[in-house]
């Protein structure tokens, strides 16, 4: 019995710390295999590339903590990007266009929340449906064509930095800090965790599960709208084509970060590290000349391993 208990504790340790341990291991391996991996230029590029995924993963973490999932998050980001592009190209300034992007994305979050919290539609079906809705809307209102955006503010967002930290990752860090405070230092955050742990018990203690679920989908969508600004800044245009890689990786980052897919176990730093790990993995494989066909396979294997380890997380 003692041997079994010791083995369980070991597995629990690996499950709780999969993201930081994996990130350290990847840095060591890739720095040995590629002399350019730890150069300042490449580190800065990785951090900038990770910013979008970090923000999406934080939004996804709020949803998954309640025991839900948001399959529409990447399509929501795409719709937000198109909303920004159309608003800016029609004469609105940067800040007004940014507001349009966030509100466009939050419309999908509102639909998700109402369907799931009020309509009692399962999260998988509801967000799968709104994934198609957001994708269709983005294609329709843009006529399926990219919208070029020439904005000094976006140029500053893309090229500006404080040392090796570009403005995108600084923005992502601010979002992470605010999210951590909300999740662990406010009553709302406690309610999110309570609903994910046991909705019946939460309701019995006076918590409105309906309002909590509606709120987390709005948060995820609002952050997707914010990520849309970084996406437009990075690409230089609002692209109507959905990038499903962001959807899969946002969920993967949360799983790697130790957030339980069954809900009730909240983490913010973990998903952030998970997003950095996935970015480092893709970057390292690219530097080593590994075909892009193999990169999703590597990411998938890492995520499956992390998902298996979650079985041994401490309750």
Order of helices and strands: HHHHHHEHEEHHHHEHHH
Number of H- or I-type helical stretches? 14
Main sheet summary: 2 strands, antiparallel
Strand order of the largest sheet: 1-4
Average predicted local confidence, pLDDT: 90
What is the CATH topology descriptor? ABC transporter involved in vitamin B12 uptake, BtuC
Catalogue the unreliable spans: none
Strand content: under 5%
Number of strands: 4
Whole-number total of structural domains: 1
CATH architecture: Orthogonal Bundle
Structural class: mainly alpha
Helical content (DSSP H or I, runs of 4+): over 70%
Top-tier CATH class: Mainly Alpha
Rounded to an integer, what's the Rg over CA atoms?
Answer: 20 Å
Task: Explain this structure.
With 315 residues, the protein is mainly α. It has a single domain (17-312), classed as ABC transporter involved in vitamin B12 uptake, BtuC, CATH 1.10.3470. Helices cover 75% and strands 3% of the residues. It is built from 14 helices and four strands. Helix 9 crosses helix 11. The mean pLDDT is 90.
Short characterization:
The chain has 315 residues and is mainly α.
Primary descriptors:
315 residues; mainly alpha; ABC transporter involved in vitamin B12 uptake, BtuC; two-stranded antiparallel ribbon; 14 helices; 75% helix
How would the blueprint of this fold be written?
Blueprint: H1 2-16, H2 18-33, H3 40-65, H4 73-89, H5 94-118, H6 123-142, E1 147-148, H7 152-159, E2 161-162, E3 165-166, H8 167-185, H9 187-197, H10 199-204, H11 209-235, E4 237-238, H12 244-256, H13 269-287, H14 295-309
Antiparallel strand pairs: 1-4, 2-3
Helix pairs in contact: 2-13, 3-8, 3-11, 3-12, 3-13, 4-5, 4-6, 4-11, 5-6, 5-11, 7-11, 8-9, 9-11, 12-13, 12-14
């Amino acid at each position: 019995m003692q041997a079994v208990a010791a083995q369980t504790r070991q597995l629990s340790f690996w499950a709780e710390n999969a993201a930081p341990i994996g990130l350290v291991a990847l840095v060591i391996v890739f720095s040995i295999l590629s002399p350019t991996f730890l150069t300042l230029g490449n580190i800065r590029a990785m951090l900038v590339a990770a910013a979008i995924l970090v923000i999406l993963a934080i939004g996804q973490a709020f949803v998954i903590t309640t025991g839900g999932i948001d399959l529409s998050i990447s399509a929501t980001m795409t719709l937000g990007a198109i909303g920004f592009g159309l608003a800016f190209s029609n004469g609105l300034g940067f800040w007004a266009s940014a507001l349009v992007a966030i509100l466009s994305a939050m419309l999908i979050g509102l639909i998700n929340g109402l369907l799931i919290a009020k309509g009692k539609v399962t999260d998988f079906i509801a967000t799968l449906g709104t994934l198609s809705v957001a994708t269709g809307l983005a294609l329709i209102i843009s006529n399926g064509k990219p919208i070029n955006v020439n904005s000094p503010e976006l140029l500053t967002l893309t090229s500006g930095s404080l040392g090796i930290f570009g403005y995108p990752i600084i923005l992502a860090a601010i979002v992470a800090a605010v999210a951590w405070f909300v999740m662990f230092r406010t009553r709302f955050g406690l309610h999110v965790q309570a609903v994910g742990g046991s909705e019946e018990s939460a309701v019995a203690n006076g918590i409105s599960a309906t309002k909590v679920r509606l709120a987390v989908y709005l948060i995820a969508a609002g952050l997707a709208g914010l990520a849309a600004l970084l996406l437009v800044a990075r690409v230089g245009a609002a692209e109507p084509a959905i990038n499903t890689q962001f959807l899969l990786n946002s969920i993967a980052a949360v799983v790697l970060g130790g957030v339980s897919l069954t809900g009730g176990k909240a983490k913010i730093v973990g998903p952030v590290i998970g997003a950095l790990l996935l970015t480092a993995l893709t970057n390292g494989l690219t530097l080593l000349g590994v075909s892009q066909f193999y990169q999703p396979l590597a990411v998938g294997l890492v995520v499956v391993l992390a998902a298996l380890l979650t079985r041994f997380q401490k309750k």
